[in-house]
Each structure stands twice: as C-alpha cells, then as structure tokens.
Amino acid sequence: MGSREDLIQRSIPFLREVKDMTPGAKMERWLNETYGEESALYQDLARLIKVGVEEGWAANQEVAGPNYRRSRILEPTPETFQFSITTVYMNSADPRRFKDEDDLGVLRGQYHGHPYGELNLVVPLNKGAELKGLQGWQGPGWTAPDPGSRHYPEVRGGAVIALFYLPAGRISYDFKAQPDR
Q: Cross-referenced InterPro entries, in alphabetical order (predicted)?
C-alpha cells in the first residue's frame, strides 16, 4: 500500500467518528482537544500529507503559482461516509502577499463557501506558520468552518499544508467575494 492509500485508510476511522457531527466552533474546539498536535491521529495524518506533497500526489495543481496549490485526493465515497479528501499548500512567502494587522505577510487564496462545512487539519511546514480559520489563526491543529460559511483562505508565517474533509465533497467558488479589508 502506498502513502496515498495509507492516508485514506488512516482517515476512515476518524471520518466514521465525526460523520454525524456538525462543523463549527464547538466541533473545532473538540477536534483540537481530542486530536490536536500531540495526538497519534494528527501526527500520522501530518506525516502522510507531507509525504504526499514530497511525492507529488498531494497539493500538486497550481491555483495561482507554486505557492498556492491544491488537489483532490479522493472524491466522496461510501467508504469515507461521503466525505472527500483534499489538500492545499499555501506559502506566505509568495510575492502577492499583503500585510495583516500584526504586520505579517499573508497570502490570500480564492474566496469560497462551505455548503456543508469543512474539517481542516492544519500542518505548518515552518515554525509559526498559521492558517486563518473562522475562529482566528490556527497553527498545528484543526479548523471547522460552519455549514454556509464563506471566506478567503489565508496563511501567514510561512508554508502550511491543509488537509481537508468536505461533507459530500461540497465546496463552492460561485459566491461573490466580500470586499477587501
């Protein structure tokens, strides 16, 4: 079995556990308390997704240059309880970044919505790198945007891989973006 299949198989027991939960702030807290950076699940998934990027099967399709890439690892299946598995690589070292309120360089991705929410494992590749979730900036750990939420993905402090699980594989780029800050 290759590392891609290992990642899928490692995800299935987790997806079985969370399949009937609703993404949002409460679930995000639970994910970080139960499966935070020190947990075996986080460690395994983080290791496997890093291998996937190195081997070229994860986050391998450029969205807007080499510092913003993503790829669908698996479409929704009965085996994954109709969750899809996707990865995104974002690196705030990109020259298109802007400065945030803390004067840190931020790379902003494509505005999108989560019709059914999202479960998002955040794997920093640089110490201090963070992904902005709906509850604020997140280093190693999880975000869980609510069903119906919309946002720009943003990264600061370096490179992050986000491994995310979408209920029914639903994500939408058909929303009009909110005005810039």
A: PnbB (IPR032345)
Reported pTM: 0.87
Tokens encoding 106? 């931020």
CA-CA distances (angstroms) from residue 109 to 10, 24, 97, 139? 28, 21, 10, 17
Of residues 101 and 93, the one with the higher pLDDT is: 93
Q: How far is CA 177 from CA 24, 109, 131, 157, in A?
A: 21, 11, 19, 24
- Amino acid sitting at position 88: V
In CATH terms, the superfamily for domain 3-169 is Jelly Rolls (2.60.120.10)
Count the helix, strand and coil residues of the chain and give each as a percent rounded to the nearest 5: 25, 35, 45
Tokens of 28: 């995000």
Distances 59 to 33, 34, 52, 85, 89 between C-alpha atoms, Å: 27, 26, 8, 11, 6
